[in-house]
Amino acid sequence: MSKIKLAVFDLSGTTIQDDIGVRDSLYEAAVEFKLETTADEILLHMGTNKIHLYQFLIARARGQAITIRDFEKPQDAETVELATKVFHRYEEIMIARYRRGVTEIPGAEDTFRWCHAHGIKVATNTGFHRQITETIMESLGWLRDGLVDISVDVEHSPGHRGRPAPFMIFHAMAQLDIQSVAEVIKVGDTPADMLEGTNAGCRGVIGVLTGSRPVAAWGKYRHTHVIPSVAELPELIETEFN
């Protein structure tokens, strides 16, 4: 079987520290607009397109039954306007938080360097939209310094379809000329990450324990491996994917 040629990494909770700031920012905006939810529910559904997350909450309040597996299927057009307003408020809160500082998960940058030294390209992908993603990349300098080959966000995918749809992974593959999902691994810390990697057909769908969600929340979704953090990924690749 082919060796791994591309590793696709989630951002918050996987390669950058998440002190539940994403959850709190999403929840704060939801509360301001009087959407019925809890912080724990927000936490479970993170990693998805945030507008679609708010659409889910609005649609549910109107009596519709939607699960995380359906997030990127056709959305109710009647929920878009309000969801977008809530999202823009969330975006303001989140950007202000990240401008105060972004910190890598210990070992993330070393893992990126190891991947490059072993012929593996590095992509990040995220449920964030463009402005937040660019704020993170500008703060860390990963693209500027060549640690990351491509940074993908939901705005790169058709119709801005984020996870669990596989299109962000396919976009990274197309841009980096990776022609087989048998050469791709996906690394993340949410149910959406596991579903995305599975929907893309990635050879490895790897969960890490550094996120704010417990393994019980995402472990019930298909994955191939669990590691403590991205710092242990090089060892896993050497033992399981060669």
Structural features, described:
This protein has helices at residues 21-32, 39-44, 50-61, 80-99, 108-117, 130-140, 167-176, 191-200, 215-218, 233-240; strands at residues 6-10, 121-125, 150-152, 184-188, 204-208, 225-227. Strand 4 (184-188), helix 8 and strand 5 (204-208) form a beta-alpha-beta unit. It is built from 10 helices and 6 strands, in the order E-H-H-H-H-H-E-H-E-H-E-H-E-H-E-H. The radius of gyration is 17 Å and the shape is globular. It is α/β, with parallel strands linked by helices. It folds into 2 domains: 6-18 and 103-240, HAD superfamily/HAD-like (Rossmann fold); 21-99. A 6-stranded parallel β-sheet has the order 3-2-1-4-5-6.
Structural domains: how many:
2
Proportion of beta-strand residues: 5-15%
Cα shape: globular
Mean pLDDT: 91
